[in-house]
Every structure is written in C-alpha cells, then in structure tokens.
Amino acid sequence: MIRNCYLLALTGVVLVAFLLQTFLISNSPIDYPQVLEFPPSALSHADVPWNNDLQRVIKLGQGCLKQPEDIAVDKEGVVCTATRDGWIKKIHTNGTCEDWKFIGGGSLLGITLSITNEGDVLVCDAEKGLLKVNEKGVTVLAAEVNGSKISFADDVIEATDGNIYFSDASTKFGFHNWYLDTLEARPNGRILKYDPSTTKTTILIDGLYFPNGVALSKDQQFLVFSETWKFRCLKYWLKGANKGKLEVFIDNLPGGPDNINLAPDGSFWIALLPLTPKGLEFVHKWPMLKYVIAQFPRLRDFFRDGKRSMVVNVEADGKKIIRKFDDEGAKVMPFITSPVEFDDHLYLGSLGTNFVGKLRLNN
Ligand SMILES: [Ca+2]
Ligand SMILES: [Ca+2]
Question: How far, in Å, is the centroid of ligand 1 from the Cα of 35?
Fold first, then answer.
C-alpha cells in the first residue's frame, strides 16, 4: 500500500515536472537564456542623487516626430531623424519640421549623414538593412551578409575612406521583439562593414551581446560600439599597430548603452537604458522565470518598463565618465536612445517621445 502511494506520488511529480518543462521551456520563444548581470553601478544608480537636467530640454518638432530613435545634425544645425512612421524628417533652425523622404515601415533606427557624398543620408532599417537616402530616392546598400539576412540593422557610421560600419543587433529577434533578446541575453549580434568600392558587406565582429550604437574615434583609429546586455562599450582598432584587436572601451556602465556619438572634443556621448524597473533586476538571473516572461507580451512590457533616463559623457579613451544628465521617473524625456552634441547643445533622440530634446551645455 505504502509502495503504491509512493509510486503514485512519484508519477505525479514526474508528470508535473514534465508539464512544467513543456509549458515553461518548449513554448517559450527564447532558448537557453543566460544570466544578464547588472553591474553594481547600474544597481546602485537607483540610489544616487538625480540631477534631472534632462527635464530642462526644449522640445523640437513636437508632434511631428514619432519616436525619433537616432538623430544627426548637419553643419548648418539642421536636425535629421528617422521616425517610427517611416519618414526621414528634418527640423530646420527656424523650428519648422520637414517631411523630407518617405521610406515606409515601422523600423527605422540609426542615422548618419554621409561625409563622402554630401546630401546622402545613411539609415538603418531594422528589417530592410542598410539604406542610402538622397534626393534621387532610396537605395538598399545591404540586406544580407554571407547569405544571412540582416534582421536588426541598428546604427551606422561612415569613415572618411567611405567604409560604412553598422550593427546587426540580433540575428534572432527583430526590432519589435527586442526585449526577447534582452531576456535570452545571448550573443546574437554582429558588427558589419560595407565597402562602397566593392559594394560587399562583411562580418567584422560576431558573437556580440546586442551591439547597438556605433561611432568612430576622432582620429578614426578605432570603432567604438555599445554592447547593451553587457553594460559596456567595446573598441575595435581599424588602423595602427593594434589593427583588428578588440578591447573593452568602458564597462560597468550604470545602464545598458544604446546609441553612442562622438563629441566635438573627441569624447563620446552615450544614452543608457535601465533595461528593467528598479528592484526587479533579479529577474534577469533566473532563466526559468525568463522562459515564462518571454511567453506573455504584457509581462514583457511590465519588465522592460524602466522609468529612468540617462545620458553620460565619456572621456575619449573611455577611462571615465565626465558628465551625467538624467531624468528621474522619465517625466520629460522617456526612453532616451541618442545624445548628439552640436554647437554647445545636446540633441536627444528617443523611442518614447514625439519630439527631439535640445539641452544647453555649459562647456
Ligand atoms: Ca547614430
Ligand atoms: Ca540604437
């Protein structure tokens, strides 16, 4: 009798374990999630004093710009941005908003102005790849690499020699499912290079944890890019004795780095994402929990809703953070994704606003 009860209980446990396994793992869109470690600076940041400087921004193009994720400013001070409704728009110095070129879709991200062909705008369409836009129209420069589709083109920069460097943040999850990549926290991304002389695209660096913003150093000796899930930026030498070498540029950032932009003095501005609400960072240590969260879009939204906005200015050699501007509670500038310095002002792109923020810097 006791033996039968024991067998029955054991069968029950095995059955429950099997059902749990089926429910938790087999149905989940993520595979073998890794632990996403929040560095002490990201955890302790919640307790340090906020300056709320980002709440002082002037709003440019308000109502005209739907989620301007990245921005570029030309030498005349005209702001160029790609918006969620598929437009490349320009904000002129008199404040007017111009619908410049229509691309379509809902996945335009990183943008940069060509320096080798004036008038060309290079833009990442997460779904279509790397695009060139000018008065003549839209050209797809790169939609695949080595036969594999570029599925999450994120940010782009052009070097003076014409080579174009851009990120493919995840080969597994697209822009609209980016938070699944956060939960999986695996090295699904890569940095690509487009060579205009051959029109070929090659993989420069593979196996990266959500490579996001890309920038070049002032002397163009190295490429620096964000690795968002690692709370760090890496640096890849393009020239000199270290050519081909990959190093840490800055780590232990107090948020997941998004777009990074070179400042006129050679330092860099980086937008930082909180990735998850304060106090819930532990979730990213539990793979089983991540399997469950990944299955329910509403749960995913809850865990990605970090209401803190921050940008940092980092020294040219990445040794330390010089300045930090933030917005506790993200009251004015939610979901900041891109800071660009021009003429003693910081221009701020965001996935959570309908304007570009402009903040006066006291240099
Ligand atoms: Ca950019
Ligand atoms: Ca980005």
Answer: 28
| 139 pLDDT above the threshold of 60 | yes
Q: How confident is the model at residue 19 (pLDDT cuts 50, 70, 90)?
A: low
Question: Do 319 and 327 meet the contact criterion of CB atoms below 8 Å apart?
Answer: no
Alpha carbon of 120 to ligand 2 centroid (Å):
20
Question: What's the gap in Å between 14 CA and the centre of ligand 2?
Answer: 45
Going by pLDDT thresholds of 50, 70 and 90, the confidence category of residue 160 is very high
The rounded Å distance from CA 339 to ligand 1 centre is 9
90 CA from centroid of ligand 1 (Å): 16
pLDDT single digits (tens) 317-361 = 999 999 999 999 999 999 999 999 999 999 999 999 999 999 999
Q: Decide: residue 100, CB within 10 A, 0-12 exposed, 13-18 middle, 19+ buried.
A: middle
The DSSP string of 8-48 is HHHHHHHHHHHHHHIIIIIT-S--SPPP-PPPHHHHHGGGS
Closest listed residue to residue 358, CA positions, set 314, 323, 325: 325
Q: What is the pLDDT of residue 45?
A: 60
Hey, is 322 helix, strand or coil? Answer: strand
Report pLDDT for 15. Answer: 72
Please check whether residue 85 is in contact with residue 105, taking contact to mean a CB–CB distance below 8 angstroms. no
Task: Estimate to the nearest angstrom the gap between the alpha carbon of 261 and the chain centroid.
Answer: 12
Percent of the chain with pLDDT over 90: 85
- pLDDT reading at 48 higher than 70: no
Q: Are 148 and 193 in contact (CB under 8 A)?
A: no
Cα 4 to ligand 1 centre (Å): 67
Pick the ligand that lies closest to the CA of residue 262: 1
Which residues have CB atoms below 5 A from the ion given as ligand 1? 70, 110, 155, 259
Q: Which ligand is nearest to the CA of 268?
A: 1
pLDDT at 17: 67
Whole-angstrom distance, CA of residue 124 vs CA of residue 180: 20
